[in-house]
Fold this sequence. Notes:
The structure holds two protein chains of two kinds.
Chain A: H1 8-12, E1 14-20, H2 24-35, E2 40-43, H3 73-78, E3 105-106, H4 134-142, H5 152-166, E4 168-169, E5 183-184, H6 191-203, E6 210-211, H7 222-226, H8 250-260, E7 264-267, E8 270-278, E9 283-291, E10 297-307, H9 311-319, E11 339-342, E12 344-345, E13 348-354, E14 360-363, E15 370-372, E16 389-397, H10 411-417, E17 423-432, E18 440-448, E19 454-459, H11 464-483, E20 487-493, E21 505-507, E22 524-525, E23 528-533, H12 548-567
Parallel strand pairs in A: 1-2, 1-10, 2-7, 3-19, 4-5, 10-23
Antiparallel strand pairs in A: 6-15, 8-9, 9-10, 11-21, 12-17, 13-17, 13-20, 15-16, 16-17, 18-19, 22-23
Helix pairs in contact in A: 2-8, 2-12, 5-12
Chain B: H1 3-21, H2 39-52, H3 67-78, H4 81-102, H5 111-128, H6 136-149, H7 152-158, E1 169-173
Helix pairs in contact in B: 2-3, 3-6, 4-5, 4-6
Amino acid sequence: MASHPTTPGARAHTFDAIVVGSGISGGWAAKELCDRGLRTLVLERGRDVQHLRDYPTALKQPWELPHRGRLTHALAEANPIADRCYAFDEATEHFFVKDHEHPYEQEKRFDWIRGYQVGGKSLIWARQVQRWSRFDFEGPARDGFAEWPLTYDELAPWYSHVERFVGISGNRDGLETLPDGEFLPPWEMNDVERHLQSRIHAAFPDRRVIQGRCAHLTAPQPVHLEQGRGRCQARNLCYRGCPFGGYFSSNSATLPWAAKTGRLTVRPHAVVESVLHDDATGRASGVRVVDAETKATTDYFARVIFVNAACLNTNLILLNSKSRRFPAGLGNDHGLLGRYVAFHNYRGSLHASIDGFATSYYSGRRPTQVMMPNFRNVRRQEMDFQRGYMVFFGASRGGWTQGNGQAGVGAAFKDRITRPGPWGVFMMMQGETVPRHENHVRLSTERKDAWGVPLLVTAIDYHENDEKLLRDFLQQGEAMLDAAGAKRITKSDSRQAPGLDIHEMGGVRMGRDPKASLLNRWNQLHACPNVFVTDGACMASTGTQNPSLTFMALTARAAHHAAEELKRGNL
Amino acid sequence: MNRREALRQGGRLATAAALWAGLPARTWAALAAVPGWSDAEEQLLTLLGDTILPATPGSPGAGSVGIGRFVLMMTAECHGPDVAVAVRQLVRDVEADCQAAHGRGFSALNPAEREAILVARERKAAEQAKGGRFDPFRHVKGLVLLGYFTSEPGATQALRYDPVPGTYRGSVTLGENERSWAL
């Protein structure tokens, strides 16, 4: 057991567990540790955001937003990075980090989108939740670039555990490539999406168009009502925070749940500078915090530490956790900390139109999309690139914005553009990228931030494999749209920088071999087992799925293990 | 000007006056005038917006929501200074088009004449913008559409707006005269 200071002041700063970060995985760590009886301190570098109270724009009508949702020139100019994020607008900008407040060094361009507040990015996530399949866990070893130290079957009960609490709508599709979960009723497809589904399936039997699975309560269960959450109202204004608790966030679900145990302490404005290592015991003893406002330094102590600061900040904290035992960062005996960072390739998209369906329409604003699980290199390597991609779809009719760029004025013009326009189809990719040694983050040797923490340097880029995969998606997307009878198909490559996918993963990867990885099968640092990393940083590969569900399942599993190990006296 | 023409002219001015009297209506009641722009320029933009999106059965025109002030405010706050210069030139060009064609300003024209002026100006502006240059007409028209269709009358009367839909129905038959959803 790690030694603990015993002076009265130190006792007030001593907890059973510390969780660094309050986002989607930190919230889960807090909930599970509190549920297991541990007094838990959650440290959040940003301000407090209370569910409902701190959603200033959640109930604003379109006409109540001064710029109708658009950013002012000054705000956009001051935040070129945040401004590239699709969700950053007048109604949501208060949940995004402003560029100038938190600089970093881009050795290679990386659009780092961050949410520094209680709840982190769980307030502004896209809420898409799909399980990984066995192919996603086994594929990296088959392809020789990483080895997951756990199997799908081991994680499956934990997927179920978090799914029941989160509340996930989805259809039971019975696909081996995208296992079913504990689902609430699915959202409906519209007429054109159903048309695409049947036509694509007829032309490509191995490609299945299914309804997206999302963290929205379509039929709240007692466990959701107990959280104070209600049914999703199909407003699709989620990024403002939901006044109904219709979607899952730390703020609406895990943190208030943990607080109800009486064992949770949340400390906002707490910038974690480093994890403290006790060289005598070989364990971490606590963390050092710099107050974001006063810059005062305080140490907090605990027997178990979960680092859930979000992928790159978790890397940053561990790299900055230097001790005599670990001069290159905590657990970093082999120089692999910060390496093998990967992300999702979002560059490709297609647009097309579908003729007909003139009397088909829909009502409400669905908070998810139709999708297609990966069909490339699933059972064996068969393409000239490694891994694969998931596809997202959506079909909708043009609204008033069809008037932009359309010639005409007057009553006839107004009449035309206020009627539903032609059907358009949108298709985009979510491609797996292979973690590579050269794709890394490290500490700046020259510059520090306002709290004395070295800036992060990003050196993450695309690879030829990503270009090939992108080309394949664009070709196949066109072929599928063509098979579905779509017209006027356009393909595009956004050439967006890594980061904008907001799916950065790795740097503190799990693995069986301590020489090739940082974390063991329970997300413990091989070299410092009372430190757990269960956010995106722990990922040995990226899969093609939206990653948050897997972070949550890994977190719950690791927290359970931590509590058991404490009970056994092993930590 | 004969008596009949004078009456017609007076009628038009009365219509315009009624439009101004209703300003700023509901949505932009609190918007301050945008510095650097004359009342005449703002009024011309309001009338221009009201010509692009006039009152039709069931919904008012863009003029009723003080669209000129919205266009100027958005131009000032959401775009760089070059855009304001281009918008001012557009206002001048429209007035010059009216003088050349009718010997009168935009506000003195009847609605059909105003439409014809804007149709021609839109075409000309698009031609001049070929090769990726900024098109001030497209810019103003875009803001007219944005301002109107996100205003309360635009969203709820010209379109359909449901703040809390409750659910999503994927297959709904579109009725003969049904409008798009505002969001």
